[in-house]
Amino acid sequence: MKYSKIISALFIGLTVTACNYETQVSLYASDLTEDTGEKPIYAPIMLMGEGTFSQNDCGKIRNKVEPSLQNYFENVEFKGCSDGSNLDNKISFSASAPVHVGSVQNGIATTDFDLPFGVLIAYDQNLPNSKFILISRGDNYRPFAEALDNAMTGSNLLQNGAKITLEIQNDTRGEISFTSTGVFVNGAAISRENSETFPLQRRESIHVKLSDVSQQFIKDDGWEQIGRVDFKK
Description:
Elements: E1 22-28, E2 41-51, H1 58-72, E3 74-83, E4 89-103, E5 117-123, E6 130-137, H2 141-151, H3 157-160, E7 163-169, E8 176-180, E9 183-185, E10 188-189, E11 196-200, E12 205-210, H4 212-221, E13 223-231
Parallel strand pairs: 1-7, 4-5
Antiparallel strand pairs: 2-4, 3-4, 5-6, 6-13, 7-12, 8-11, 8-13, 9-10, 9-12
């Protein structure tokens, strides 16, 4: 089975002033074309924490973070520590998260996630070539955030939520397009009033960063629509 790749980065602050969270999601277009049914795709993710700790403290940080990850994600594996930005360092874990693909008529919008977050790919059966990408907060988001905040001094995931970035890769044989509003695409801001469409040729990719407003919707309301991928008929 081919998996979509979701790379999630949770920036774990070790001091009150260094707490910042981000989730990066990478999807392959070919994985959006077929319904997953009741069984989701269990996609690989990467969880990375960046904060003010030394490389010598890597083992201590791992012992604090890993139990929370193991309780709320699947297939958690420690990957190591590395240099971060400025004087910070990063700690990395791989894990798995669910992706559901299905039609609105078949109830895809009511899908629940047991894990802290997941991805929904929704479409109307009358327009099967237009797939909407949604990020959904899972049932265990709150207990996961509380566990992480309790484990790490300075962590404030529950209150602040997480920044979210997507990478959409066209691994199909033809051209696709991505349409969205109110996001940053390849670093450029897109208005909320007027949508913009970006064509992707075969093997091309696009980077989409959510606005603070969209990230707040996910934290407070439980989900947010990121944009639409259109496949040629």
